[in-house]
Design goal:
By secondary structure, the chain is mainly alpha-helical. It is built from 13 helices and no strands.
């Protein structure tokens, strides 16, 4: 995977200078130097201290990673503003619901449960910081793109897992193995009945050999599908733990820049998963290169997003309620 684009030295210096504590201290120190009566000596010292601060902070790798993440989030936001917001939100919701409607109940509930946990942990993080909402929006803007990407990959993995499971259910491995054994016996009998010099031109023998190769190819496909199913199941567990770790960082880390750099590092570490999604494109219809929709910001239970299928609407709404832990015993007569 290509290395993320750097914000650049000018951006690092700008962010370091514009840091509110730096402006406060710089202004206070400058004012003190002027009224001290020795401005010709004090002001150069203040300037030297400011240059040292800017040089030190702008070259700090962790600071650079945080600013890179912020610039990346701003760039994504600028691209998203090219289209009307309501249209973008509806499009993202439609894409998510389209995938959810194709999933089985248990897989849909698993995804919605994970998404609900992300939302809840964000609320808890705001409460820990003494906020009912992120007033500046800075930490949320940095977190959400990476979280959306992780959740989108998780959703596509669920679709891949379902597609592989259906393929393995439809494939009859025992019958294919029986066919391979039967063809091997028939090939041997035909070879015994035909002179060795005539075997290359024997049409029946060529047909049997081609059928044997095809049956072996089908068995190889099943073996590969089983391997992919095992890998996808492991990746689902791994990615689910990653996403939970990301959401818990929002509570345990008070510095949004540091937290965002860690989140982006996790999001960039899923190249192997995306490669598997590319390999499974033929049976899922989705690629790792699909643009990531806004999953945390989308209202995936809106009636407009569910189309005219009331059954699909009811199933998704019920799965959402179960995922959020609010689906209790229904009162009689409801």
């Amino acid at each position: 995977m290509a290395e993320p684009k750097k914000a650049g030295l000018f951006r690092y210096l700008k962010e370091a200078f514009a840091f509110r504590w730096n402006l406060l201290l710089l202004g206070g120190a400058s004012a003190a130097a002027i009224i001290s009566g020795h401005a010709d000596v004090a002001l150069p010292l203040v300037a030297a201290a400011e240059v040292t601060y800017l040089a030190g902070l702008s070259t700090l790798p962790r600071f650079q990673a945080a600013i890179d993440a912020r610039a990346h989030a701003e760039e994504r936001g600028a691209v998203g503003q090219a289209a009307p917001p309501s249209r973008d939100a509806a499009s993202a919701r439609d894409r998510i619901v389209e995938v959810l409607r194709s999933l089985s109940e248990d897989r849909r509930a698993r995804f919605l449960r994970l998404r609900a946990r992300c939302v809840e942990m964000t609320r808890i993080a705001n409460a820990v910081r003494g906020e009912t909402a992120d007033a500046s929006g800075a930490s949320a803007d940095l977190r959400q793109p990476a979280l959306d990407r992780l959740l989108w990959v998780f959703l596509k993995l669920l679709l891949s897992d379902q597609a592989i499971a259906r393929f393995l259910e439809a494939a009859d491995a025992k019958q294919i193995l029986h066919t391979i054994g039967d063809l091997a016996d028939r090939i041997k009998k035909r070879e015994d009945a035909v002179a060795e010099a005539d075997r290359p031109g024997d049409r029946i023998l060529r047909s049997l050999q081609d059928s044997f190769a095809t049956a072996q190819l089908r068995m190889d496909n099943i073996t590969k599908a089983r391997s992919n199913a095992e890998f996808v199941a492991a990746e689902l567990d791994r990615l689910e733990n990653k996403i939970q770790a990301v959401t818990e960082m929002a509570v345990s880390h008070s510095d949004p820049d540091e937290m965002s750099s860690r989140i982006d590092a996790i999001a960039e570490g899923i190249s192997q998963t995306e490669q598997t999604i590319r390999e499974l494109q033929t049976i899922t219809g989705m690629t790792a290169a699909d643009e990531t929709p806004s999953i945390l910001g989308a209202d995936i239970a809106q009636p407009a997003a569910l189309g005219e299928d009331p059954g699909a609407r009811a199933r998704i709404e019920q799965a959402r309620l179960v995922a959020e832990g609010r689906a209790g015993r229904r009162p009689k007569g409801s």
